[in-house]
Structure formats: C-alpha cells, structure tokens
Amino acid sequence: PIEIDDTLSAVEMDEYERSTDQGKNQIIDEWTGQHYDMVRNTMNALCCQAHKGKIDYMMKTESGLQRYVVEYGTAAEIAAMTKTLSVKLSAAKYSDFVKILSEMASGIKKNGVGGPVEFIAASDVFGAMIDIVTAKANLNAGSIGDGWVMIGQFKVYQDNDSYIDVASDGTKTAKSLCGDGEIVARAVNAGQSMPFCKLDDTVQQNAVAFYTFSVDRNDHRGTDIYSKSKPFPCINIKGITWVKFAAEEASAGEGVQS
Predict the structure, then answer these.
(1) CB 208 within 8 A of CB 19
(2) Which member of 28, 72, 131, 209 has the greatest number of CB atoms within 10 A?
(3) What's this model's pTM, rounded to 2 decimal places?
C-alpha cells in the first residue's frame, strides 16, 4: 500500500482561509497533485520491475524502510524470461536485429500467447538500431519516427521509463525499464493490467485508484492531509521475453590508473 502523510501548517491554513473559493481549490489541488505524482511514480517503478518477473522495491513503513517483494513465478520461470545473446551490440548487424526480434515474438507464441507484440529497447540498443537503419540506403525515411524505428516488419520503441530505486542503506539509483543492452518484447493481449486493491481504511473501504482526505489537528497547528493507493501490477510472464546482448570487452588499459 502507498500511504502519504502531509501537514498543512497554521500559516498555510491562514492563507487557505483568506483565499477565494478558486484559491482554496488551487491550494488543495497543489497538495493532492503532489501526492498523486508520488503514487504515479511508485506505480511506474512497480510496473518496470514486474516486467522482469519480480518486484523488489523499497517502501516506507511505520517501522522504517522495508523491501516489498513479489515474484510472478518460480525462480526458474523468471530466469527463463531472459536470454543472453552470443552477439555483442557493437557487432550486431541489421540481419541480427531482425532475427532476434523474430525469435522473441516466436518465443511468446510458443508460450501460448498470441496477438500483436510490442518491442522496447534500451537507449544504447535503440541508438545502434538507428545507426544501422540510417546507414542502409535501401530503407526509406518512414523507417524512423519519433521514439521508434522499424527493423524489418517489427516496430521497436525506445525505452523512456525510469524510476528511483532505494537501497537498504538509503542510496538512491536511477533505473530504467530496460538495462543497457536489453530488449523486451511483450504481448499486448497477454492480460497485463494494473488493478487497485481494497484500501486499509475505515471510511473508504473500496478498491479505488487514489483516495485523499484531511483531518484538523488537535493541537491547532494545522491540518493533516492523507492520501492512499494500493496498486498491484498483474503480469503474465508467459507474454514477456527479454534478451541481453553479450558483454563488450573492456578496452585496453581501461580501469588502469597511472
């Protein structure tokens, strides 16, 4: 569950009381908008991780920071989602990309999931695809668009999802849906969804996407504002497959200090 607590101070309450109806609505909208952005960011992080078959995300609880872990299959099933390629990204040819994408789509169909497949590539992979397509004189200009590129009959999108992961020691790291050298293929009709579970609340007991309310403080120091949400990504790992290009060899002298 995502639970956000904030306090509208006495000074801010004074500004609120002196505001017009439009001004009051704007103040409330600003606070709830900030809370909703936090919920959206958390949802995005959970979805990115769920696409790898496992959520392992640091959440703030009453007792402090605690990792929230959900596995969408056995360890063997999750490991089988990703194939490490023998070819390096720097050596990949246009025909290699076509073959890789074709095999990814076929792998999903072999898992019993049909229908269209969407491809998303890490920034370095997407850049390599752009370079290859641009260099091929026989490909028309329609092969490249805003955030996508056509590789054979496959449309590949550039990964633009990112989130902040927090380690046990509090260190924050920016991560993306796709790590370096990765491509993900996901079946559009595999049943992936983002339902919301019933909230732990005595008043709002229904499953809603976002719930917020305020309570006046007993110490007359302002108003507490609370927001709650309980998203749970539903992932069918049979409809998702990953590939990762072979690691590049370190250049001569790399890591050597003088």
Answers:
(1) no
(2) 72
(3) 0.83
C-alpha pair distances (Å), 241 with each of 18, 51, 136, 169: 56, 9, 28, 32
Q: Which two tokens stand for residue 124?
A: 């370095």
| pLDDT confidence of residue 26 | 75
In whole angstroms, give the CA distance from residue 188 to residue 87: 28
Q: Determine contact, residues 82/95, Cβ cutoff 8 Å.
A: no
Alpha-carbon span 130 to 138, nearest angstrom: 14
Which residues, including other chains, have CB under 8 Å from residue 58's CB and lie 6 or more apart? 65, 66, 67, 68, 165, 166, 167, 168
Amino acid at 66: Q
Give the model confidence (pLDDT) of 12-30 as tens digits. 766 766 666 666 667 777 8
Residue pair 53/22 in contact (Cβ under 8 Å)? The answer is: no
Type of residue numbered 32: T
Higher-confidence position of 23 and 180: 180
Outline where 62-122 has alpha helix (H).
75-79, 94-110
Residues 76 and 151: their CA atoms lie apart, in Å, by 31
Beta bridge partners of 144: 149
